[in-house]
Amino acid sequence: MLTVVELLRQLMERQAVRRFDEGTLSAEQEDRLGTALMLLDERMDELCERHGLRRSDLNLDLGPLGPLLADPGP
Asked: Does the keyword Transcription belong to this entry (predicted)?
């Protein structure tokens, strides 16, 4: 389950970066989105710690397709 949450977090982060780069967000939206992503990242760290996992433990090997997660972290 944490793998799915981490995948969604990474997808949201990439989407946010794309919108930052395109300039489609107001300054207030950028601040709120940045804060939300930072809090989500911290929460993921807490959940991994609670379950005795590292972010790299959440990655799945998809064989010829490669790893599921872009950068599983430490």
From this structure: no
For the chain, percent helix, then strand, then coil, each to nearest 5?
70, 5, 25
CA distance 3 to 31: 27
Residue 35 Cα distances to 13, 28, 32, 51, angstroms: 12, 11, 5, 25
- Determine the straight-line distance between the first and last CA of the chain, rounded to whole angstroms: 19
Tokens coding 71:
């950068």
Neighbours of 8 (CB within 10 A): 11
* Nearest-5° Cα angle at 50, 45 to 51: 100
